[in-house]
Design goal:
By secondary structure, the protein is mostly beta strands. 9% of the residues lie in helices and 26% in strands. A hairpin with a 6-residue loop joins strand 6 and strand 7 (114-123).
Length: 287
């Protein structure tokens, strides 16, 4: 359960001196999840992170508007579009070919066709935290994000400049007795991408196998949960979580946020704290 104030776990190690020197040059290491460069500091480099439409948010079922106009959403994912699996140092990421409308999502709250670009996972140092969205005061062990962009725009970068430029499907992960077997395909690749920057081929993967049986959802307008935190995202947060087991979570926690030549630092607690909802409406399907 989540109280009025959120407490983040202390990271195992502070950024080494070499990393801090790199940060001063303005490269990708300028943000992270440690005390020194974590979410409380992101707005210093990326001012939009203090915007009025940031994510994630707390969702309270009793306050959600049940919108009869919301339709079901559909995906058409080509397993051949899956390219690679990578440890970015911030997350586990699966990349997909988005050069044409090969793997897409449409319907629901979306105004058009959106192309699948990548899948990210967020998780905690323990199984009572890790998800970014919180539903009815419950934080789950992790959260999978399927990131898409509006194909009516010329490219991914262009889409992120538009308020309807991106769509993210969020799947909550809870530790249970009957883990979803489809997670095994991702988990078994982890030993090959232990350290930051490591990647491996990841062909023939259809991420729709990760969806829960019930596709009902919450939706609202928000932002990316990682810098630059652009406010261009239509969120589709699945109401029903999927089950994973503790061994699968331990495997995710075995990844390192550092490169192979640096000391091992567990990649954990890569989740952003809740952001103010402000005047936004959260809608859901009526079922």
């Amino acid at each position: 359960m989540v109280g009025a104030s959120e407490v983040r776990g202390q990271r195992c190690c502070s950024p080494p001196e070499k990393m801090m020197r790199k940060q001063s040059t303005g490269d990708a290491l300028t943000w992270g999840y440690s005390k020194e460069n974590g979410p409380d500091h992101w707005h210093e480099t990326y001012p939009i992170a203090k915007g009025n439409n940031q994510s994630p948010v707390a969702i309270l079922s009793k306050d959600v508007f049940k919108d009869p106009a919301l339709l079901p959403w559909f995906t058409g994912y080509d397993p051949g579009a899956a390219k690679n699996i990578r440890n970015t140092g911030k997350t586990l990421r699966i990349g997909f070919d988005d050069t044409f409308d090969r793997s897409v999502i449409r319907g629901g709250p979306l105004p058009g066709i959106y192309r699948l670009r990548h899948l990210n996972i967020h998780w905690g140092s323990t199984s009572d935290k890790g998800s970014e969205h919180v539903v009815d005061a419950k934080r789950h062990a992790g959260e999978i994000h399927l990131v898409h962009w509006n194909s009516s725009y010329s490219n991914y970068a262009d889409a992120l400049r538009k308020t309807d430029g991106a769509a993210i499907v969020a799947i909550l992960m809870q530790v249970g007795k009957n883990p979803k077997p489809e997670m095994k395909r991702i988990i078994e690749e982890i030993d090959g991408i232990k350290t930051k920057g490591k990647e491996a081929p990841f062909p023939n993967f259809d991420p729709s196998i990760l969806f829960p049986q019930n596709r009902s959802y919450f939706t609202y307008q928000g932002s990316f949960t990682m810098p630059p935190c652009e406010e261009c995202v239509t969120w589709i947060v699945m109401k029903e979580p999927i089950s994973v087991d503790e061994q699968q979570m331990l495997k995710l926690r075995s990844l390192s946020s550092n490169s192979a030549e640096d000391i091992h630092c567990p990649l954990v607690d890569n989740w952003r704290p809740l952001q103010p909802l402000n005047n936004r409406m959260i809608r859901s399907t009526c079922q």
